[in-house]
Amino acid sequence: MTSLRILMFTTFYPPYSFGGDAIGVQRMARALAARGHQVTVVHDEDSYLILGGKVQPKGAPDGVEVIGLRAKSGFLSNLLTQQTGRPTLHAARIRAIIDEMRPDIIWYNNTSLVGGPGLLTYGDAFKIYEAHEHWLVCPTHVLWRHGREVCETRECLKCVVNYRRPPQLWRYTGLIDRMLDSADLIIAKSAFSRDKHKAFGLRQDMQVLPYFLPDLDIAAVASYADHPRPYFLFVGRLEKIKGLQDVFPAMDKYPDADLLILGDGDYADTLKQQAAGNPRIQFLGRKTPEELNAYYRGALALIVPSVCYETFGIILIESFRLGTPVIARRLGPFPEIVEAAGGGLLFQTEDELLNAMQQMQNDAEGRARMACAARAAFEDHWREDRVLAAYGAVLAQAARARGHMDLAAKLEAGALEAAKV
């Protein structure tokens, strides 16, 4: 197999990152490197540091070359990119990286502060844009209007002022559309996200390709045994848009199980105050991947109560991988994921949430069926090798359609399918 040269751009990349989207980019980079490809990731360290992150130590070697951009004035660099929609202080270095590497594929992820939409015109390789957020159609990335409700109609100027962000005038000039015409393939993470992009005015077609996880031998993953009572699990960043606050009233009415919360974030103190009167709600902070897997294995179900429009929901397939069903809000992409798997229940109201919790705890046969279906669906739809094979087929078709014949032939020969042993 011929090795491909793949250059990835993203604003956030671990450990200079906060959320799950960056982890998804890292998983892809590592999966590509494991298949023998030369993978370089360029990300913007300043954007992480300006938002309160700390300088991070260099990670262990994983086969991926990582280039962290940092300017003498990180704030100025980010502001110029945010306001112009183009690379500014890092433009010359980005061009030099592309010229030196001569990539076969340039893979854009969240480019909001690493170069904006203007970055898409750089280089002449086959170009992919992967929409991990709704940034292409939303200046705040999350379609969460005025910080209080899902966005159904555009009120962008008023909304960004409420978020205390400078308005981006280039968004009203058609710049994103013109720049996206340079992309050979645009990827949405779910059918819901694809349709939401279209509803908010994106005119280019999007292909749906989901997130993935490497497989685990679930028999070798110990169930968390130190907690004395049955428990439901919440995993994620503690922000208002994740909806955890809506679960607390239900827990006050449900004495038969506990709620264990894994994660941290800006909304943590407020959530802890709201839950202070209920000892069955426990905040356990961040955990290692091994600890996290054990908590998944021991849970009655994972509760996913987000109140915003996610693009996918990686934690759902993390739970499915370990054979743990989910209880997810009937919103955004969650219904398509849960219903495709048959691995959980949906809720919209507090009563529906309580009924779902009771069903998970008291209907052992029903829960067992959902657990088996969740694990089987993970293997069929979200296991790394299955998803990478789907990527290879979609990329090959797009490459051939756009005249990248050598790349198409390599992809058709299975360049993304088998990990290098």
What does this structure look like?
The model has no long low-confidence stretch (mean pLDDT 94). The chain has two domains: 5-213 and 383-412, 3-Layer(aba) Sandwich (Rossmann fold); 218-382, Glycogen Phosphorylase B (Rossmann fold). The strands form four sheets. It has a seven-stranded parallel sheet. It is 38% helix and 15% strand. It has 421 residues and is of the alpha/beta class. A hairpin with a 3-residue loop joins strand 6 and strand 7 (149-150). The two termini are 13 Å apart. Helix 15 (384-401) runs antiparallel to helix 16 (405-412).
Key phrases:
alpha/beta; Rossmann fold; 2 domains; seven-stranded parallel β-sheet; 16 helices; 38% helix; globular
- Strands of the largest sheet, in order across it? 3-2-1-4-5-8-9
Helix content: 25-40%
Number of beta-strand segments:
15
N- and C-termini, Cα separation? 13 Å
- Mean pLDDT, nearest integer? 94
- Overall tally of structural domains: 2
Question: Structural class per helix/strand content?
Answer: alpha/beta
The tally of helices reads 16
CATH architecture of the largest domain: 3-Layer(aba) Sandwich
Major sheet characteristics: 7 strands, parallel
Overall geometric form:
globular
Query: Residue ranges: pLDDT <50 for 5 or more in a row?
Result: none
Assigned CATH superfamily of the largest domain:
Glycogen Phosphorylase B
CATH C-level category of the largest domain: Alpha Beta
- Rg of Cα set: 22 Å
Strand content: 15-25%
